[in-house]
């Protein structure tokens, strides 16, 4: 292929099972990552550079046609303008979670006093690292049960120059904890097992089920645990922020209200779905 446009068209044409706009977005990512070609280079039909060398396009197409996420192929994804390393050990950060970041940053941007913040179930570290970068006055702790996830999160913190204290801890079995926090944030497992049949193959096959799924008989298990933790370890006036299953907005709100939180609010995401709850102790 002699030009960026001809290579782009060829790769898009080889992808199977993707919507046309999704296939184009994936190939744009590949060309930018491997050949440093921008969208404008593709549209303009820029000649393909000889350096860097081209990857094995056939192998990349094969992996994509097996529904492997493009983020796993290139090893990174963008979140809040920062480039995060990802692997099969962590969930790929979603655009909706960026809105959770904006909500928290909006509330604490003017805070000049103590701001101890904990991210429960950190995964790639995208929430903790981004908040540490955007709220430099914050002291950030991040928990995850998975040692493999914490390895990725620590790498992201080092690469992105974020000061985060990572700990392998289980929110369902906290044990002894004496610290107090001004802010608790969590994007816990909230997809019920019965919803799995409606999910995309790339998510089911390549992303960690430990971080995704919760049993149908207790879909709010982790929210109860986070709310209980907040009652024990938030200062008065401190707040919990959680990403939620759109099916359980009022029920999640009730979890916090039953535990004595006030001003419990549901926020919608960019798609108009109930996606976040904020609760003040």
UniProtKB/TrEMBL annotation:
One annotated GO molecular function: nucleic acid binding
Sorted UniProt keywords: Methyltransferase, S-adenosyl-L-methionine, Transferase
Methyltransferase small domain location: 114-195
Release factor glutamine methyltransferase N-terminal domain location: 14-75
Gene3D superfamilies: DNA helicase RuvA subunit, C-terminal domain, Vaccinia Virus protein VP39
Pfam family, one: MTS
Keyword Transmembrane helix tagged: no
Record keyword S-adenosyl-L-methionine present: yes
Binding locations of substrate: 187-190
Protein name: Release factor glutamine methyltransferase
Gene: prmC
